[in-house]
Each structure stands twice: as structure tokens, then as C-alpha cells.
Amino acid sequence: MRKLKFSRSLLISILVLSLTAAVALASSLSGGSATRSGAVPDPAFDPQATATGSQKAVFAGGCFWGMEGVFEHLKGVSDVKTGYAGDDAATATYEQVSAGGTRHAEAVEVTYDPTKISYGELLKIYFFVAHDPTELNRQGPDVGEQYRSEIFFANEQQQQVAAAYIQQLDEAKAFDQPIVTQMAPLDRFYNAEAYHQDFIKRNPLKPYVVIHDLPQIRQLEAEFPDMYQ
Fold first, then answer.
1. Gyration radius of the chain over CA positions
2. Which of 89, 98, 200, 204 is 20 to 30 A from 191 in CA distance terms?
3. What is the DSSP code string of 77-108?
4. Contact (CB, 8 A) for 74 and 134
């Protein structure tokens, strides 16, 4: 019998296609997700930032790999760091946070130019692409308070814009389930370990990335092409 020969590229393609096909099954096994109602509304209250120069925003919502991957593809965003927010430096390690024994959440710190992208626009992507705001302590297969949906506001203006947008989305019934996203003042953001930075770029064929993270990036490009880079 003649042996079939497969090139490395073909084997990789088969693997990626197989993993992508498993997305629907993985989603059904990992919990439900909210359904949108209509178009994505822009924040009605989104004043121009008063500070000059680059600014930072910190968001939590599931595994920080996917959050990083989404936000780093936004025009006006110059840097995204994965890390931890909600507790102190002594517990800001992946081993402790992933075990669920801290008050930290996996989070991302987004550095952006407010003259190119507003805080409200970041929130729009946070709510409609980066995660499911109707799931409090769960995103996909990741369960626990360390994967909670939470906005860590850095100042009063961020707090006001976030609170107003949540109220706007709730009143418009933008999702078929209530938004459960929490809000808290940012004390400090702690960078995650080096191997968690730019994780998707360095591990594009990792099964978790293919199933859970790459679809979000494709969604961003498809639904918000003017914001995608």
C-alpha cells in the first residue's frame, strides 16, 4: 500500500480547520452567551478627554489573552499589557490568580491616544467584542472570580462614561440578558509574566487561541473595519 505524504503546511491547515470547526461545540459546552438586540449603539455620553498625551484604561473580562488580542488591533491603541487588577502586589502572580485564591482579575491595560479613539469607543469594543458582559464570573470555558467582568476606572471621567454607557445599554435592552459588569476604582495594575504578553501573536496555533480568541479578532475586523488595524 502506498503511504500518503503530508506537508507540514497541510497538516497545520487541517489542524486549524478542525479546531475552528469545534468552536460551536466548545461554546455549547462552556455556557451560554448573550444575544444582541439590534445595532451596536455609540456611547451617548463620551466627552473628549481633558488630559493630554496617551492615556490608559483597564478592563477585565475572561482570559487576558483574548482581551489583549482584541484591543491591540484597534486604531489609536499603542500598547496593550496583560496583567492583574483588584488585589495587591503579593498576590499578582499567574499561579496564585489562576488558582482563584486572590481578589485579582485577569485584566488588560490599554494605552491609547484619546485624539484617535475615545474611552467610550474602547467600551463599545469591550462590551460587544472582547467579552460577554452578561456573564459575571465566567467567560467561555474559564470559570471563577478571576475571570469576572469588571471595569477598573482610572478617574472620575472614565467612571462617568462607563456608568452612563451601561445604563444606556440596559435601557436599550442591547442584550437579551442583563449586563452584570462590575466597576471599581483602579488601585494599581500589575503586569503579567513575560510569557503572557503578546500571547496570541506568539502562539497562533494553540488550540485555546484558535477556538476562543481568533474568532473575536475576526469579529472585530468584520464588524468594525474602520476601527481595525
1. 18
2. 204
3. EEEEEEEEESS-GGG-SHHHHHHT-SS-EEEE
4. no
- DSSP per position, 142-188: EESGGG--EEEESSHHHHHHHHHHHHHHHHTT-BSS----EEEE---
The residues annotated as belonging to the active site are 63
CA–CA separation, 140 and 126 (whole Å): 15
DSSP symbol at 37? -
Are 171 and 37 spatial neighbours (Cβ–Cβ below 8 Å)? no
pLDDT by position in tens, the chain (length 229): 334 344 554 444 445 445 444 444 444 344 445 677 678 999 999 998 777 789 999 999 999 999 999 999 999 999 999 999 999 999 999 999 999 999 999 999 999 999 999 999 999 999 999 999 999 999 999 999 999 999 999 999 999 999 999 999 999 999 999 999 999 999 999 999 999 999 999 999 999 999 999 999 999 999 999 999 9
CA distances in angstroms from 183 to 7, 60, 88, 149, 161, listed in the order given: 50, 10, 18, 9, 12
Grid look-up 478542525 returns 18
CATH of 34-223 among 3.60.9.10, 3.90.380.10, 3.40.190.10, 3.30.1060.10 = 3.30.1060.10
Query: What is the pairing mode between strands 182-185 and 150-153?
Result: parallel
Amino acid at 79: D
Measure the CA–CA gap between 65 and 143, rounded to whole angstroms.
15
